[in-house]
Design a protein that fits this description.
This protein is of the alpha/beta class and about 425 residues long. The chain has 16 helices and ten strands. The strands form two sheets. Strands 1, 2, 3, 8 and 9 form a five-stranded parallel β-sheet that branches. Strands 4-5-7-6-10 form a five-stranded mixed β-sheet.
């Protein structure tokens, strides 16, 4: 078996509005509805709708010989439902084809796996339920936010019942080994690991329209030629990328849609590779070895570490402050505040605070609403300060509601009328 595993990440954050210091304690509405709707509509028209139709056309043409997989964040699904419901319908049509696998992830594309096992588990279960509600399938494969993975995170995912997980094929983890095999988690070998081939993935996602790239322009003939040059013993090529690559990061004028329209036919007619979903690859192949990842890795930068989100004092302070509020959230039953808490966990908020330079940054700054990382930090902390006031007030109400019955019960025997006893004759 020689497999190509296409996985696309679909995500949109709820962006914060400009929130001033003077708004703290006065304005409980944090999100920029106009900007969120504008971007959701724009990306739906440029990427999601045309690309979903392109994939459906390919499935109709090639049948079960062409398959892909998606991970759609809960924040993206919430925005589709609110602003562009036709996008959800287009994903439903793909789901009904039987050639698409939907993966599970954290509901709000959060970094909770690094901080709170309880929150991580709750978000994953919420996302899994949402995928079943919308598309009628229960995910069995998992993709963590930003492909963040470590041995411990993998073990948590395995304990939740998933049998397959995706992550980055980081060079400092693999060493001499190839990402083009199936691996296992080093703690729980029942969890199979698929590793991104970042070179071939990035050829499409980042370098496709880069005219200074020696291999530009990228054609299907050239790409399939590279596939055929891979060692024949290697079993699976994992092509993982943002779905917004198509039509948004790489504009239609670059030829990206024509490339993807022609790729399945070229692969099937000029190579021994076939398209499979992550769960199919996991079931069909035998793992070659465990992969040891003692410290978390991600897709980002040459380092493939966490420093795009947690690499400076601004990010660390905001992240720690956010999760210091978790005990108060657990005592709150206000659905709006719980939703705000989850939306504030989205990894993009911390990414906007990044002060390092990295080659992939231009793509993400495309949607960055802030002029500087410091603007992002100040705005976020203003919002968090207001949220802290609200959530602590909610927790206090919870405390009173819970403790009052206990107190009443404790004093009840003292206020009851003593029962009369019969005198002995």
């Amino acid at each position: 078996m020689k497999a190509i595993c296409f996985y696309f990440q679909v995500h949109q954050p709820f962006r914060l509005k400009h929130y001033r210091f003077f708004d703290i304690g006065k304005d409980p509405y944090y999100f920029d509805e106009f900007q969120n709707e504008f971007i959701a509509r724009r990306v739906a028209d440029k990427c999601y709708l045309p690309m979903n139709q392109l994939l459906l056309d390919s499935i109709n043409e090639f049948g079960t010989a062409f398959k892909v997989s998606f991970s759609i964040s809960g924040t993206a699904l919430d925005q589709f439902e609110r602003y562009t419901p036709e996008v959800i319908e287009s994903f439903r049509r793909l789901a009904q084809s039987g050639c698409v696998e939907f993966l599970s992830e954290t509901y709000t594309h959060s970094l909770s796996a690094l901080k709170s096992k309880e929150e991580f588990t709750m978000q994953v279960e919420k996302h899994k339920a949402r995928i079943f509600e919308l598309f009628g399938v229960v995910p069995t494969a998992f993709r963590n936010t930003e492909l963040i993975y470590s041995d411990q995170i993998g073990a948590m995912v395995a304990d939740m019942g998933f049998n397959t997980m995706l992550t980055e094929g980081a060079k400092h983890i693999l060493g001499w080994k190839s990402p083009n095999y199936l691996y296992t988690n080093s703690i729980n070998p029942k969890l199979k690991m698929l590793l991104k081939n970042f070179r071939l993935s990035d050829d499409i996602a980042f370098r496709f329209s880069q005219q200074s790239w020696p291999s530009w322009p990228l054609t299907t003939e050239k790409f399939v030629g590279w596939l055929n040059e891979i060692d024949g013993r290697e079993e699976v090529i994992n092509l993982f990328m943002d779905y917004e690559t198509f039509g948004e990061h790489q504009w239609p004028e670059t030829g990206i849609f024509e490339f993807m329209r022609a790729l399945p036919g070229r692969v099937l007619s000029h190579s021994h590779f076939r398209f499979h979903t992550p769960s199919e690859v996991s079931a069909a192949l035998q793992p070659v070895a465990p992969i040891h990842v003692p410290h978390p890795i991600s897709w980002a930068d040459e380092e493939r570490d966490l420093t795009a989100w947690l690499g400076n004092e601004l990010q660390d302070e905001a992240f720690d402050k956010l999760y210091q509020l978790e005990p108060f959230v657990r005592k709150c039953t206000d659905r709006k505040m719980i939703q705000d808490w989850q939306y504030l966990q989205t990894s993009d908020h911390f990414y906007y605070m990044c002060t390092k330079w990295f080659s992939d940054g231009d793509v993400h700054k495309y949607f960055n609403p802030y002029g500087t990382p410091y603007d992002a930090f100040i705005n976020y902390m203003n919002v968090l300060s207001d949220f802290e006031i609200r959530i602590k007030a909610c927790a206090e109400n919870y405390k009173e509601e819970v403790e009052t019955p206990k107190v009443a019960k404790a004093i009840a025997p003292k206020t009851e009328t003593p029962k009369k006893t019969k005198k002995k004759a």
